[in-house]
Amino acid sequence: MSPHRNPPTEKKAIVFWIIWFAILQGVFILQFFIGGGLPKGSDQGSPPLWVLAAAGTLALLALAIRFRVIPKIAEVQQRLPAMIAGLAVSEGISLLGIFALGKEFPATQVVFFVMAVFCIMTFAPIYAQQRELN
Fold it and tell me: pLDDT below 70 — which residues of the chain?
């Protein structure tokens, strides 16, 4: 018998990496094609408070999923839906910057884009391996 070249956990991990990379690239595509690139300049006035609160809430929710929920999940298959939910929440931050903020808030739009990328980067699936229980 020949040993497995690609154990099942490696095959599962590649799915995690493909989804993560696609979402990361999707945020850049959305920003540059729909959002018109990275805006330049300073804000004219103060952005709406509800948009700032929504972005902060989404960022906290994404980070809670990544650092509180995912580490508690023992099975690799059950981590994938949690990762996808966290990535969707993270992407929502950039969508708020593109669609909910007006063009008069370019600095805040850049902050939202950077926050979204940062949150997505934290979901890099280094956790897509089965843990050994000691």
Answer: 1-10, 130-134
Nearest alpha-carbon partner for 20 in 108, 83, 113:
83
Q: pTM for the full model?
A: 0.87
The predicted structure's pLDDT at residue 64: 98
Name the region of 36 (left: φ>0; alpha: ψ -120 to 50; beta: rest). left
Distance from C-alpha of 100 to C-alpha of 87, rounded to nearest angstrom: 19
Task: Provide the pLDDT for residue 8.
Answer: 57
With a CB cutoff of 8 Å and minimum separation 6, the contacts of 65 are: 82, 85, 86, 89
CA dist 10 and 7 (Å) reads: 6
